[in-house]
Amino acid sequence: MKPFVGRSLSFVLSVLCACSSSSPGTPAAGGSTGGAGGDGTGGSTAGGGSGTGGLDGAGGASSGGGAPGAGAAPAGQGGWAPDAAAGGSPGWATSPVAVHGQLKVVGTQLEDEHGTPVQLKGVSSQWLNYESKTFPESKAAIQWARDNWKLSLVRAAMGVDANGGYLGTTSANANPAGMLKKVQTIVENAIDLGIYVIVDWHTSNAVTSAGGSQAQQASDFFTMIAQKYGGYPNLIYEDYNEPNKVTWAQIKPYHQAVVAAIRAVDPDNVIVLGTPTYSQDVDVAAADPVAGTNLMYTLHFYACTHKQSLRDKGTTALSKGLPLFVTEFGITPADGGVVRSGDPYVCEDEGNSLFDWMKQNNISGASWKLDQCTDTSCILASSAPVDGPWTDDVLTTDAGGTTVSAGVIQPPTGGGHGLFVVNWMRQ
User: Is 348 assigned a catalytic role?
Assistant: First the structure.
């Protein structure tokens, strides 16, 4: 019951032609998805995208590594081009993409174009259809975070089958143009700023146990994204946020279809593939990986809920040669640390264990979530301005909280893991 099932790419493009890449869209109205915590906005619900058209005049993507030159789009791309100042503005020459360029996967390692292992650190947006304000769309604030947090990565978590999402729960509340506008803004800002950007098909229902699949819609979407931005080394695709209640045998054909669609346009940018049970069963995927190059696999981790046993699953997957990317994590319970659920905690000890394990194995990560709320997984305090600067005093913290047990703190209302994860980025 997805509104674009069976619709052609040309139809979707016609819907999206009203999108402008010059400014962020208006936040979509909507309530809870009934799945993720925190008013539908919390953390992982885990229990325990030549010449054929495209976005705003996009043509085909060019291949090859290295950041495109200042003001010039890769060959075949029309419409939007990077800021003329890119490559010459303060901070760009030492930006993550200027330093590392085209990423590649070698064995279990993410490497840069020089063959050096790289660990990206950054943040995920809120579900873009539920965000309280347009924090991840603010170019000035993300530049400040790049320069002051050492942020190298931002994730655009595009809600899909949710109220106000790309497909919506019904055709009446679908908002493909609005969602795409937000994604475009985040991606284009990232390219201008020289940081990496994940475009995330943010759903748990791309494949269902009843045989439903969003493979066609996702393939059409990522084809458009690849046509527009696939020539830039900044781009990372995440085709399925958190598969749930389906087996790897059911999920794998979906990945194969979406990977094929992306690779028809973009031969080399990294694609991250969701794994069973809210992207936790990476050891299962390791037994039967998807064929292809520059593919990684998603592991999601919430420190208060997922402890040594999940790190053990990750270690098992690595031992079998499966490259991992933690595209979403929290130093909180798996629901995002929701006050009304009675678990607004920050688990520092387990968080440090997670960070140590990621460092030991050179695994990149993005913290949930760049937003303001009372969930302990919100990074920004209520005083944080949309356009920054996001100084330490406008980050959520567990300082002054109540110790629940060893290493587990309940912050004052409005507190959270923000400063803790920003300090991890700075390391």
Answer: no
Residue from 131, 137, 238, 242 carrying the catalytic annotation: 242
Give the CATH number, domain containing residue 126.
3.20.20.80
Would you say the C-alpha torsion 254, 239, 290, 320 has a positive or negative sign?
negative
This prediction has a pTM of 0.86
- Cβ burial 17-32 (10 Å sphere, 16+ → b, else e): eebebeebbebbebee
Which is the catalytic residue, given 131, 137, 238, 328?
328
What are phi and psi for residue 71, nearest 5 degrees? 75, 0
Cis peptide before 233 (omega within 30 of 0): no
Confidence category of residue 45, pLDDT binned at 50, 70, 90? very low
188 assigned to active site: no
Q: How many CB atoms lie within 10 A of CB 359?
A: 12
pLDDT digits (tens, 9 = 90+) for 218-266: 999 999 999 999 999 999 999 999 999 999 999 999 999 999 999 999 9
Q: Which domain holds residue 325?
A: 9-19+50-426
Q: Could you tell me if residue 42 is inside a domain?
A: no
* pLDDT computed for residue 43 by the predictor: 58
281 inside domain: yes
Residue 110 resides in a domain = yes
One-letter amino acid for residue 356 of the chain: D
Question: What's the sign of the alpha-carbon dihedral 282, 286, 290, 295?
Answer: positive
Query: 140 pLDDT band (50/70/90 cuts)?
Result: very high
Domain count, the chain: 1
Residue 43 lies in a domain: no
